[in-house]
TrEMBL record:
Stretches with biased composition (Basic and acidic residues): 11-20
InterPro entries given in the database record: Duc1 (IPR013897)
Domain of life: Eukaryota
Organism: Durusdinium trenchii
Protein name as catalogued: Domain of unknown function at the cortex 1 domain-containing protein
Residue ranges occupied by any Domain of unknown function at the cortex domain in the UniProt entry: 4-215
One Pfam assignment: Duc1
Location of the region described as Disordered in the Swiss-Prot/TrEMBL record: 1-20
Amino acid sequence: MEVKLLAMHRPTHDSDREKDGDYPFSWHLRGRKRNWELRMQLQFKVLPKEPLFFALELSRFVEVSGVTRQVQKALVAACQAAGECYHSNGQDPSTLLAGRESEPPTFAMPLYAFDQFEVSRKGTEPDLSGDLESIGMRRSDGAKNYMAALKKALAELTTEHVYTFCFWGVSQFLDCIRWEITGGIVPGMTVDFNRLCGSPPVYFSVYELKDSGSEKRHLKSRKRSYFRVAAWSALQPPAEAPEKPFTNADFSWDGGMDLLDLDPTPAPATGGYAAAAPKTAEASVDLLGLG
């Protein structure tokens, strides 16, 4: 699989830049409720045989209780309002019998949970850093027709097309730069991401989930991962080196992903910024351009 990713984020850590529109992709994000938008393009070399999921995962079990658990439930409910998704707090490996596989804390959704999609012939796909307002279909244009069209496209995947996906639905509740749950998911409260994830980084990935009969957990042994990327904010850096990422994709962002330090390049066609050239394995790659 060939993969392209682009993340954009408002400078929520710098009110002056946000007010002045002095940041990459302000032409797109300014004046919107969303804090960020994630864009992804996929081209398959071998078609998947099992359902595909886009997921956020933690590397270790985190005990979640009390008020934090209630915030988590509210956030998951907001995500589920956009469509089917899978959530598990995972299992503490220390409580399992020796040799038993534990499930990592996981939030996963099928690709049809994205907010916008486009199917293009190779070579005609849209520029991820450009204006996609008139491209493809959007959930906001009618959820029923949108879901039907996207499910049909996923059922008819080919190696001849490039599939573009955009996701922003819950971004008004998640400030990834400040590393906080915000935006009124629980009125009057903001919650440090670390109360849910323990500590950065978090990992996001696309994987194929093998059918294992009655087993419904998203275990590592059931996954064929196309890519898995570590992500964090420079305001909340990891205390330890991230796990070594793994990938089956033609994907050069194979290291960590710091969400603040990209040197953006202006994109004359849109007035915005284009992502810098991806770096090779072992390098940290920031997709936001807010340095």
